[in-house]
Amino acid sequence: MWNIKEEELSEFKITSRNRLDPDGATGFMIGAFIWSSIVMFMVIGTFVRFGWSYFSSPFEKTFLSIELILFSIQALALFIYLIPKVRFKFQKLQTLVILYCSFQLATIGFSLLLLPIWMESSTNTPTLIYIGLLLLGALFLHILTTIDTFKQAENGAFNMGGNSSSFFNKTKERFIIGAGIYAIALVIIIWLNNQYTLGTIGFYLVLTVILYAVAVASAEFQLLAYCRFKFSSFNTSWEEHQRKRSKYRNNGKNNKRKTTKKKLS
């Protein structure tokens, strides 16, 4: 297993306690849910308007049924983690939920490609294959960036000091450039294969950018999950969180009093 030392993660620990703390992570979950809700609103609206028979192929019915189930799980998870105390009591499990939400954020938009009402025509078999290759490319990119992120952590890149480096190092930059060329080539092939309008192919590009951006960024969530499960110092207790909030409020009140006294004087 990875030989990642807790004492060499001081910089990432700060990130974990600030931007990736249980409250901040819930904010990401809300954002992912809003995007998923927009997509599923269109899918469910198609069900209501045309009925289940609108989807002719078994693939479309199976895929959209799975997406409905996955969206329901996402909604339930968000509802649970909207409770402040739950965020901190089960923050280890929350990291797995974050990864799940990342997956939903990256892939759920492709559900709309199966709805002829939103697209110019039904998605044909070659196009489905190209979309599958897009998804596989993003998965491969995520695996590579995750391995590189863990190697960085192992080498002390996320520790304050001489060895520290940015999450986006030269290796990741090469991965991103290679994946970008690969994805653009596939989108162009889809365009040529279907003769889509610029509006439709632009929608493909938006989905592809979201897919590959999440594939890279969620590597950090993988490291967060690893650290939360392995190192207790990466977890903030509910009591500690309450103490910090009380201290912050008291400091705010004291600063307000000092400002008021200065104005009066």
* Nearest-integer average pLDDT: 86
Biggest β-sheet strands, sense, barrel: none
Give the overall form.
globular
Low-pLDDT segments, ≥5 res = none
Beta-strand residue fraction? under 5%
Description of the structure:
It contains nine helices and no strands. The chain is mostly helical. Helix 3 packs antiparallel against helix 5 and helix 6 runs antiparallel to helix 7. The longest helix is centred in the last third of the chain and has 33 residues. The mean pLDDT is 86.
Secondary structure elements and pairings:
Blueprint: H1 10-17, H2 22-50, H3 58-81, H4 84-89, H5 91-107, H6 125-154, H7 170-194, H8 198-230, H9 238-264
Helix pairs in contact: 2-3, 2-5, 3-5, 5-8, 6-7, 6-8, 7-8
Could you give a quick summary of the protein structure above?
The chain is an all-alpha fold. Helix content is 75%, strand content 0%.
